Amino acid sequence: MEIIVIPILALLAVTAVTIARIRNLWAAVMFTGIYSFLSASWMLILDAPDVAFTEAAVGAGIATILMLATLSLVPKNKHKGGGIQNSDFETKRLRGRSVVGSLIVALGTGAMLVYGTLDMPHFGDSHAPIQEYPRPSFVERSQGDMHGLPNVVTAVLASYRGYDTLGETAVIFTAGIAVLLILRRNTDDNDRDANLETTSSNGGGSKPIAVATTSKNSEEAAS
Amino acid sequence: MNRFPIIRVVSKFMIPYILLFGLYVQFHGDFGPGGGFQAGVIFASAIILYGLVYGLSAAQEVAPSWLIEKLIAVGLVLYAGTGFVCMALGGKFLDYDTLEHDLWSELPHGQHLGIFAVELGVGITVTSVMVMIYYAFAGRDRVV
Amino acid sequence: MIVVEVLAWICLVAGSFFSIVGGFGIVRMPEFFSRMHAGGITDTLGAGLVVLGLLFHSDGVLPAIKLLMILFFLLVTSPTACHALAKSALSQGMRPELENDAVKSKATGS
To answer: Which residues of C are less than 8 Å from B6 in CB distance?
Structure first.
């Protein structure tokens, strides 16, 4: 094992604990971005550069932007000023009441998960199912089957396991359609509803980077 | 919009390279690391960067949302369609060996052609879903 | 050949040194803008010198070209990120603590 793995894993653990403990939501979002970059570099060490791309682009880029967009839609007093004291008080009260119960639930779940791992093959076991299926011969055969395509990962993903990838694509498609149905506002009715929301939650202040102009225009058009 | 001239210039300069890298990951994925999923998110992140810096309306001029919405389905249809073409040519569903041809030697053959088409479908769907989710979030209020 | 090797190691060690200095600076500097200066050192001088050292070390033309492109993009994007941070900090009402202010506040404080 390379030595660099140890500091990266330690930083991952520190970042995860920080995300759980930090009270400022904006900072927590930035920490999730840092977490994604750390895991991307870890995946690079594990010889999975394609997964590392995805993690860096989705986890650190797109997901962070979407989280920030969501936070900017939340009215400011919900997570700053008076609200936080209330919620602090609330958590303290809850903590006092049900610490034993939640401890039992957490320990029970953890014990079950650990018990579940006992059945799993040891780390790096050459007879683990993941080493046996797809058969190692896939790796040897793929060069001939695929007309000399050197990338076995792509060959397994797109050809030997083509059905799985079709299913994954369908999952992404379905998720996209669901988001479209829930979040999109296209018709005039929706626009008016959204305008009410905008005017009620407009105390956001100036945001660091660009500000969209479309909602302004559509407001004028609707009125 | 004119408050960040340096960011605007630099991102305008960087976006073509991000798009180029996305295309490289897409079409070189058979030989090196990469593939449809990876290329899709890289391509989408370039469009999202453009939207962040230049505003949502500018991004929607480049990639209009009606087009993006249709491309979500086009990618999946391209994937499944490859499978049906294989069936029509007498094989099983997604059995790319039937795509063997001698039309044009530059075009990839058999399995390679199938993988190429399928990865392209995945890339189109992933790109358009990511961009569409960004549009859906950013269109609601101010962009971050 | 030995000269190139020595140059490579000098660059690598210097780059690591500047990265460590930048890390210390982020922790130890008194306020936001000087911390950002330390972060900028890590981004440009630290990472840049490491890439330069790897460039001397690389065999073949293709890795060298790739490293040059990485260096180029690093030198373009890192200062831009720094600039964006500073600009948004300024627009949110943060002001750099100048030496005069520190002297003044010390004078009024004591």
So the answer is: 80, 83-84
